[in-house]
Design brief:
Layout: E1 10-15, E2 21-33, E3 36-41, E4 47-51, E5 55-60, E6 65-70, E7 79-83, E8 86-90, E9 96-101, E10 106-111, E11 119-122, E12 130-135, E13 140-145, E14 150-154, E15 165-169, E16 174-181, E17 188-196, E18 201-207, E19 224-229, E20 234-239, E21 244-245, E22 249-250, E23 260-267, E24 270-276, E25 292-300, E26 305-307, E27 312-313, E28 316-326, E29 329-336, E30 350-356
Antiparallel strand pairs: 1-2, 2-30, 3-4, 4-5, 5-6, 7-8, 8-9, 9-10, 11-12, 12-13, 13-14, 15-16, 16-17, 17-18, 19-20, 20-21, 20-22, 23-24, 24-25, 25-26, 27-28, 28-29, 29-30
């Protein structure tokens, strides 16, 4: 039976931060895709992932089974954001927010409060009712009411580009928004902005330091963000309680293993970043067309150590791009971009795997 139609499972012991082994399980699923996109977990424990192929995928990490749902709209599924019985779907420049009722299996569209929306990402549900969406080209941040199905623009008060994304920090009761200059694909970091959830107002903007002269090392891992200078191979700590930037951290193997540091998921106190060979040009740091790497950058703030969990596969190279920490588990998705002749093709619609903590409990055939 072809491997795409049968459940396969194997575990890779990886060396994590502090020398402790991490066991991640590779679960092949019957999907071929260029790359799965941003994920979210619903209340029943299933993971929902987007794709560029006008479909969304519901993955059950307990069984390794997957369901593919065709989108009735001509849109990319950039992010899936779960909220109760609904899955909110962002479509980048698609002009409306898409909503899938996962119980009734119905779709609907709702207008954004934006003149020309370009929404890629959003936060998870914060208070049982609201989530925050990021319109990266138009109005900035939108608070979405999942009961009324209506969005409210949060005015952006700073003379900079609007945020491209953000992270909710429950210990600070704020959404911390990331501001970048994306001109020419150079990902120039500009600053962080604090959005107070209670007042629904921005109350602080903190420009990125040009260098770390005069800065001291971070002190408390529990109150510190680790923000990548995307194309420079560095992490910049920011203490959100003391509201200060800290001494930069140089990431090992920059320029050899990777040239680009992407988004992060925080799991069990460690930060997991996607990495790519992209270095600002069409030719990656390895002299070949750029692509996401077959592993992640792991940073342990308590131990102050780096590691590179790697997804090794015979006759395959699985680029790993999006990650998720939810339900006490860690997930990443990988897509095989290795051609039969051994070359790597980042545009290939290849075989997909889920890479996760905790093995599925049942061996089942995928539909």
């Amino acid at each position: 039976m072809p491997w795409l139609h049968v459940f396969l499972l194997f575990a890779l012991p990886l060396l994590g931060a502090g020398g402790k082994p991490i066991e991640l399980h590779v679960v092949p699923v019957p999907i071929k895709s260029y790359r799965l996109l941003a994920m979210s977990m619903d209340d029943d424990g299933s993971v929902w992932a987007g794709s560029i192929h006008r479909v969304l995928h519901r993955y059950d990490p307990r069984t390794g089974s997957v369901e593919t749902i065709k989108l009735p709209y001509d849109a990319v599924v950039c992010s899936c954001i779960c909220a109760g019985e609904k899955v909110y779907i962002t479509g980048q420049a698609y002009p409306k927010l898409m909503v899938y009722d996962r119980v009734r299996k119905t779709f609907k569209e709702v207008a954004y409060p934006s003149p020309k929306p370009d929404v890629w990402y959003g936060t998870d549900l914060l208070d049982g009712r609201h989530l925050f969406l990021f319109d990266r080209q138009s109005v900035g941040v939108i608070r979405w009411d999942t009961k009324e199905e209506k969005g409210e623009v949060v005015p952006w008060p700073y003379p900079t580009p609007v945020p491209i994304g953000g992270r909710y920090e429950p210990r600070d009761k704020a959404v911390w928004c990331s501001v970048y200059d994306l001109t020419g694909g150079q990902y120039v970091p500009l600053g962080l902005a604090r959005l107070d959830v209670a007042t629904l107002k921005f109350n602080g903007y903190y420009p990125y330091p040009k260098d770390d002269a005069g800065l001291t090392a971070y002190e408390d891992p529990g109150s510190t963000f680790f923000v990548p200078i995307t194309l420079k191979g560095k992490l910049v700590p920011f203490d959100f309680r003391k509201l200060r930037w800290c001494k930069f951290l140089d990431v090992p193997e920059y320029g050899r293993r990777f040239g680009f540091i992407g988004g992060a998921a925080v799991h069990d106190g460690k930060w997991y970043f996607s990495i790519s060979t992209y270095n600002g040009t069409d030719v990656g740091c390895d002299g070949k067309p750029y692509h996401f790497c077959n592993g992640l950058l792991e940073f342990d703030p308590a131990a102050r150590t780096f590691a590179f969990p790697t997804l090794e596969a015979k006759d395959g190279y699985y680029q790993v791009a999006y990650t998720l920490s939810a339900g006490g588990r860690f997930f990443a998705t990988g897509t095989n971009i290795r051609e039969p002749d051994g070359t790597l093709n980042g545009a290939r619609a290849g075989e997909v795997v889920f890479w996760q903590t905790g093995a599925p409990q049942a061996r089942v055939e995928n539909p």
